[in-house]
Amino acid sequence: MTTSTANFSCIPILDYSLLSTTKPQPESRDQFINELRNALINVGFLYLKNHTVSQDTIDKLISYAPKLFDLPQGVKDNIRMENSEHFLGYSRLGTELTKGQVDQREQWNFGTGDRCRWQKGDPDYYRLWGKNQASWPDEALIPGFREMLETYLSQVEELSYDFSSLVAEALGLGPTGLKHFYDAKELMQHRGKIVKYPVVTSGSDQGIGPHYDGGFLTFLLQASPHQGLQVQNMSGEWIDALPIPGTFVINIGKALEFVTRGIAKATSHRVISPKGETPRYSVPFFQSISPDIRLANEILDNFPADVLKLRDERGTVSATDSVNFTEFDREPSGRVILLSKVK
Ligand SMILES: O=C(O)CCC(=O)C(=O)O
Ligand SMILES: [Fe+2]
């Protein structure tokens, strides 16, 4: 593994209020963009504070999370992901593996939008666009949950587009430099999960094993105050990403790393199960790109020399722990996601 001068020992905290449109300050904007460039190239992870998602909605989501998992097992099993052609719904503890090892987590999978895009003759992966209907627990069992989560997902979706334009700017591509990776908003379906990591007293404490995210950008809400998320730096050390109230943890996925020629860095991360008395909860939101995009045809060019220099000074991590399928650059991105679900 290459050790780099740009190795990190903590995850930067970026302040979204530096971009405030009520009092625009060019130097504050420059500061934000510079900090973002550093985080994208040297860390692959950042915290975002003073973001645009309402704290009231986040507080509600945090209080709903345990109630969702406390629903009777039969209710949860009725809306199991395994029965959904859209891969939405509930998945039991122990049904997921990372690199052959069982992850100790229970999850609900949701998507934005509420329609299936697939029509006869369309590619198979359009079926991933699913109606959420099947994945919502009965309103009477958890009143207000659906409305709260739809509000949350649509606010994070908005943030994800705004943030993607800032990422493009920070990489020297101009604010619209990543826009062609997305279809029209009403055609996109982004995915989110609500995850419970139970307390582990014996056996494996792998909440989720070391992995890279596959897409462009992930927006993670740490929905309880537990230690557990760790991020691997250039020399292989695991750095804690402790929950910071009022922030999102944002990280880069393999697809963005690939199309930016390794400039924006995907960083390996994992979750260690909680040891105390109470479970850990988190809510990742995975921003999708157009399902028809073949990444190998879309590798970006025209990066400014200073951005390329920062990448080259950083060096590369020689140990590869890539996504578990090899066709991720050549197949349409929708099929890559489909393959990852059925493997
Ligand atoms: O739960 C977390 O904190 C991280 C989850 C994660 O990395 C993932 O689901 O890809
Ligand atoms: Fe992840």
UniProtKB/TrEMBL annotation:
Transmembrane stretches, start-end: none
Domain of life: Eukaryota
Pfam (any one): 2OG-FeII_Oxy
Entries under PROSITE patterns matching the protein: FE2OG_OXY (PS51471)
All residue ranges annotated as the Fe2OG dioxygenase domain in the record: 186-289
Keywords: Iron, Metal-binding, Oxidoreductase
GO molecular function (one): metal ion binding
Keyword match Membrane: no
Family: Belongs to the iron/ascorbate-dependent oxidoreductase family.
UniProt protein name: Fe2OG dioxygenase domain-containing protein
Originating species: Leucocoprinus birnbaumii
